[in-house]
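ok trying again, last paste got cut off:
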Amino acid sequence: MIDLVIEARRKNLGNFEVGRVLPFHAHRMVGPFTFLDHMGPATFQPGFAKDADVRPHPHIGLSTLTYLFQGEITHRDSVGSLAVIKPNEVNWMTAGSGITHSERFEGLRANGGRMDGMQAWIALPQEYEEIDPSFTHHEGPADLPYYEEGGLKARLIAGEAFGAKSNVPVYSPLFYVHWELEPGTVAALPAEYAERAAYVAEGRVEVGDRELTTAQMAVFAPGDTVVFKAIERSTVMLLGGEPIGPRFIEWNFVSSSKDRIEQAKADWRAGRMKLPDLDHDEFIPLPEGPPPPAPPMS
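nice, full thing came through this time. structure:
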């Protein structure tokens, strides 16, 4: 039932830590999901330094999906979007041929508070890799179907699952679901997609004869219904979909073509992906020196 358990690796992004789940050397993608970070949890005091913010940086060939449990983030991008995301809301940004954006903790800097959330990169199918960049914000049950029964609360963040469909404009078959489970609650993930995984953001759950705890992700074998039982109050993120073929990933770029990534790097260094007034702040430079190995992701 469980093929692999991945432990989130803590990564320091300056003044802010994330738990890096994907990519993982032994299993680099789950469906089209190429990247998964757990942002926090962390508590900020009012007036904290701006180096916790994510300065303007580029993407190609993917969509980013930001979803929060607590806190808020201010998003700005080079197609003119300005949006503040709050808990149980979705920011969906499609980079396509190229976009630049920043993520700021402006509300938390003013008032203090707790930050806890997830960010995913979802690779675009090859025929959509060069579409025009775009951004949409989604909130409420009309966009993000919500279900509650007994000890289970469930929200469909993106894609289709459990007979429901999110209004987030995805480009390939996938699902992304937020579960809240009270102790003793039993819930099942059907065998609807070829690739499936579950990340425990908080708590402990049983899956078959295995126990998963905070900051662990289980990757499941195809073809079986997966039954979960909450040992304690738990937050679980379900994700997956149909595979879309191998991908290269380097820095903030994802593509089916290594040459396309080299082109994007050259464009960023030359200033062709930057809008000077995006945030009235400096942009993140491309790392210097020889790039790390970038094998195809599969």
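cool. The first strand starts at residue 2 and ends at 7. The chain has two helices and 25 strands.
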